[in-house]
Design a protein that fits this description.
The protein is α/β, with parallel strands linked by helices. The protein folds into two domains: about 120 residues, Leucine Dehydrogenase, chain A, domain 1 (Rossmann fold, 3-Layer(aba) Sandwich), CATH 3.40.50.10860; about 130 residues, Rossmann fold, CATH 3.40.50.720. The protein contains ten helices and eleven strands. A six-stranded parallel sheet has the order 1-11-8-7-5-6. Strands 3-2-4 form a three-stranded parallel sheet, with helices on both faces. It has a two-stranded antiparallel ribbon with strand order 9-10. Strand 2, helix 2 and strand 3 form a beta-alpha-beta unit. Helix 1 packs parallel to helix 10 and helix 6 packs across helix 10. The two termini are about 30 Å apart. The mean pLDDT is about 95. The structure holds guanine. The site of guanine (GUN) has 8 residues, from strand 4 and helix 6.
Length: about 300
């Protein structure tokens, strides 16, 4: 293996420690406690794990955590009423509605009911528009975490060729906007892209966010490239359940300059950025300067 392994777990721990220090100062100097409300509808096991992790890391950072667990058959109107209450609650600076929502609920309607200033996921249409036009926005957590790791590892990204594989609203599209904001030359590739291997092989920065286990192989990677693996795929290998990314780590690590592992790469940064967005939202709501390095 030649690639440097980017340790997202250690980086996320540093970000959380930095956040916790800011939270102490906010409390001592301004009497403020940043608060994050997480709403979970139904009992999807993976979502329950995420919500539990978010809650514990929120309190560990010294912030207030408000969890709202609703039954799977909750009427859309009840969920909207809860969001209106959270919008009006001054102790709540960030609101996250865990996705996916049950099929009878209109996800776009719910997300766009969140006060954009409290939209710590960055999914509200206003924040999508602000990000797309290079204005101050709440930025989606996973792409923000990827950007922080790229800046930390590479310094300036200006002029680099970046290829994002995947065009989701949660990762692919905002990731491309952030890379463009840092003056990369950006290509978004997807399942219909012709000569995907050739397109990827031109990338100085390759971000894989497709949700297909180990589909990025060494022949698709430029020697020395920085590879960010957003995928979290559960597979069975040798009769055992394992987590793998969208990148074939073993072969790509022999070619790339740097690579994020799965687990322990992008994943821990996502929750750290959720906490960072909550702190940012709290500072903005109270007219206080935002801590450096936590936003795009
Ligand atoms: N479900 C999977 N990823 C996410 C995320 O980033 N935010 C929310 N709200 N739900 C998710």
């Amino acid at each position: 293996m030649t690639a440097t392994v980017i340790d997202g777990k250690a980086f996320a721990a540093r970000v959380r420690a930095d956040l916790a220090a800011h939270v102490v100062r906010l409390r001592e100097v301004h009497g403020l406690v940043p608060g994050l409300a997480v709403v979970l509808v139904g009992e999807d096991p993976a979502s329950q794990v995420y919500v539990r992790n978010k809650g514990s890391q929120t309190t560990e950072a010294g912030m207030a955590s408000f969890e709202h667990k609703l039954p799977v058959d909750t009427p859309e109107a009840d969920l909207l009423a809860l969001i209106h209450n959270l919008n009006a609650d001054p102790a709540v600076h960030g609101i996250l509605v865990q996705l996916p929502l049950p099929g009878h609920i209109d996800t776009d309607l719910v997300i766009n009911a969140i006060d954009p200033a409290k939209d710590v996921d960055g999914f509200h249409i206003l924040n999508v528009g602000l990000l797309g036009t290079g204005q101050k926005a709440m930025v989606p957590c996973t792409p923000l975490g990827c950007l922080m790791m790229l800046r930390d590892h590479l310094g300036s990204l200006s002029g680099l060729n970046a290829v994002v594989v995947g065009r989701s609203n949660i990762v692919g599209k905002p990731m491309a906007q952030l890379l463009l904001g840092d003056s990369c030359t950006v290509t978004i590739a997807h399942s219909r892209t012709r000569d995907l291997a050739g397109v990827c092989a031109r990338a100085d920065i390759l971000v894989a966010a497709v949700g297909r286990p180990e589909m990025i192989t060494a022949d698709m990677v430029k020697p020395g490239a920085t590879v960010i693996d957003v995928g979290i795929n559960r597979v069975e290998r040798d009769g055992r359940a394992r987590l793998v990314g969208d990148v074939d780590f073993a072969s790509v690590a022999a070619v790339a300059g740097a690579i994020t592992p799965v687990p322990g790469g992008v994943g821990p940064m996502t929750i750290a950025c959720l906490l960072a967005n909550t702190l940012t939202a709290c500072c903005r709501a109270n007219g206080l300067p935002e801590p450096d390095g936590l936003t795009a």
